[in-house]
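Workshop exercise sheet. Pairs work together: one partner reads the sequence aloud, the other fills in the structure field after running the prediction. Swap roles for the next sheet.
Pair: D.N. / O.F.
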Amino acid sequence: MKHLTLIFSCCFFYILMPAFSQQAQSAEDEVANLVAQIYTEVSGSSKEAVDWDRVRSFFIDEAVIVLRSSREASSQFTLDEFIQDFLDFYDSPRLGESGFKEEVLELESEVYYDMAFVAVVYAASILDSERPPSKGIDFWLLTRKPEGWKVVSVTNEIVRPDGALPAIFSGS
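Structure field:
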């Protein structure tokens, strides 16, 4: 009887393991797609062109956002302050006529049960500007809620002049 139990356990493991692996991959794809979508959502020709309620829906209300505010300093934002910072940017004269675009260049994600980490290299540009796009790196932390994955925090850094990227982008 012990042998049958062992055989059944092994068969059960080999039959279900691909399903568990597929479920983990699906969660990684889900968080990767959600984070990538945020970059698309904040891009637009004006602050009215962006659905800020939709952007807000990706985050928990208590999310902590730490963004590079200059080469030497970072600023911490609440979710409301983060959105207000974008609104102020869209109102600024430096935006130009064509709008603003953020584009994901590279993305790596990792899911462990109900928490996830996503690392992104992105390019941000003012569309009618002569200035080339600036590159940044964001590290996102997410948690699974009953209504789906939500951003808990994000930190931001600029890509340094030497172009070195974090080790997670080892293919870079």
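Discussion prompt: Confidence is low (pLDDT under 50) at residues 3-21. What would you look at next?
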